[in-house]
TrEMBL record:
Name this protein carries in UniProt: Aspartate aminotransferase family protein
Source organism of this protein record: Aureimonas flava
Similarity comment: Belongs to the class-III pyridoxal-phosphate-dependent aminotransferase family.
PANTHER family: ADENOSYLMETHIONINE-8-AMINO-7-OXONONANOATE AMINOTRANSFERASE (PTHR42684)
GO annotation (BP), single: gamma-aminobutyric acid metabolic process
Amino acid sequence: SLAAADMAHTLHPNTNLRAHEENGPLVIARGEGIRVWDDRGKEYIEGLAGLWSVGAGFSQKRLAEAAYAQMLKLPYYHTFTSKANEPSIRLAETLAEITPEPLTRAFFTSSGSEANDTIVKMVWYRNNALGRPAKKTFLARNKAYHGITVASGSLTGLPVNHRDFDLPAIPVRHLTCPHFYRFGAAGEDEAAFTRRLLAELEAVIAEEGADTIAAFIGEPLMAAGGVMPPPAGYWEGVERICRANDILLVADEVICGFGRLGTPFGCQKYGFTPDIMTLSKQITSSYMPLAAVMISDHVYGPIADNSARVGVFGHGFTASGHPVATAVALENLAIMREEDWTGNAARLEAPFQAGLRAFADHPLVGEARGDGLIGALELVADKATKRPFETPGAMGRLASAIGHDEGLIFRAIGDQLALCPPMIVTDDDVAEIMTRMGRTLERLT
Ligand code: PLP
């Protein structure tokens, strides 16, 4: 059977491999709108849009047609040594138009991890070009997710992605996760929490020396680590401190970008302007693998100068600017504009977030949180003390299994249940998601 073949021959990412040998896969066979069906014909609402990424839903024919048309015309060409192709040029132009003001240029990769690795190398290359080879350390946050390659995995701040992989392997300092519910101190209000985090940032810069710190990278809203919106004033403060110390600010918008929070990009929701931005996932609604690094002229200048000095910017991938992936992205962004996904997220934010917060009274829910069309329920053993369960993740796994039974796929991040539905959801869809989540929680108690 298909399941037996999978159990025998696939090594699954992010999976307990021995448990998989016993339990086998959930084989998803087809999709339509916000729903998918498994190979036994059972229907699920995809409450996480795949991996936070299928904005268009699972049956957008225009994306298939864009890929097919481009494959017939020019299925592949590379972008090394000044070669170019029309879809990748048009996409770079479009991204420069729609991203915040200082960002003017795109470098394409196939994944968010490769994009963040590219950022690390670009920033190092730039600082070498500027004659400050000691300015190399990255600042990131505990519980951040920036990918899993050697450099991007080092920026990630999750123990499971570091332990036994010998990461971090690049110079990086992880700061306190800006999640007030979990990391606010006893007696501290949100404003005092923000002040403490900003003081920590200043102290780390003073301790390391600003001349050794290259960049600060952060997801506007931390997603894969547990859906944690920042406290008020946090990003304005981070931006101010970075500017004062000549530290580049990198917004990893792999999940928050393209309208997820009800603004075109996440940085606009929280009021800061990055020098560099990482984009992926919803750029093609994940119909094709694609990511982009957006940079400002300020970042670009020294890199371009150095490429002239050494003869080449010696970095790039076979699939950088792939014409089929970029053609699909262009069509996806056209649909995003026509259907106003950003406006839809802004409009549905109220019912979606209210639906989640209605579960806050449930005996197992410690916090219901989120912004825009992304949210999470954090399950705890004791609401009053916020005490987690004795076996972390077990309750999340149970909830996930019951959710499947109830026809709702969400992501259990430990004991945090994350939702991030396709951008095409309607009021009725949001109501149905909350109904299925409610039934899941009822059966959990
Ligand atoms: N950055 C963020 C914010 C992400 O959420 C992810 C993936 O979830 C990545 C980077 C890594 O992207 P990829 O899995 O395409 O390498």
